[in-house]
Amino acid sequence: MTGAKTNERPGTRAQVKNVRMSATKARAVLDLIRGLAIDEAAAVLAYTERGAAEVVGKCLDSAVANAEHNDQIDPATLHVAACYADEGRTMYRWRPRARGRATRIRKRTCHITIIVSAMPAEMLAAASARREAIPGSRAARRRGQDDARRSARVAASKGGAAEAAEDAEIVDQDAAATEALAEAGLAETGETAAPATDVAEAAEEAGIVDQDAAATEALEDADLADTGETAEADADEVAADEAAADEVAADDETEEK
Description:
Layout: E1 12-19, H1 23-33, H2 38-46, H3 51-70, E2 78-96, E3 102-118, H4 121-132, H5 138-184, H6 196-221, H7 228-256
Antiparallel strand pairs: 1-3, 2-3
Helix pairs in contact: 1-3, 2-3, 5-6
């Protein structure tokens, strides 16, 4: 089964016509870049010591530019799908020889065509990994920037969650303090609410008041604090002591008489 015709091959193409070299010399260079990614093909052409390498490199750059501008394809995803050289017209020159003879000189030309298209999925993955593995390359820097942005987004999301949790904890603490103040009768409840600083100060005061109340209760239990009932009992005891003292004094006087 025959393949696709030359003018029916899919992809974006560029062509250089009437190149002043033979098709055989151009084909020797085209065979080196056939099937390679664009960056690899450019590197091969840069270090190929043949006259056709410069012309083929310009044709390759034109094909990549056509794909980017006309078909909106990312140059990083392109590869050399096909490349070939067809024979052009031949110009004849004559060289004088001995005994009145002349020898024919053939000035050959060729037409160079390069077709680029998007790489298959497996080839694209391999090329991406290869570019990212080169230290200091653009792909490696882009990969590092992407990783940094991803890490920053993760850290920001975690930081936001931590701040939200901290805010929630503060709100819970404020709510608990407000409830404690409401029970102690030191904070207004209902529609009005105290600010956070007032709530904190009132909470401290409430803690002190609660401690004072506990100490007062302990003193009342130990009969060491004067409250309403204990003060009256002490007065009655003092009056009874005074009456007993008066009776003793009266007895002493009667005995002396």
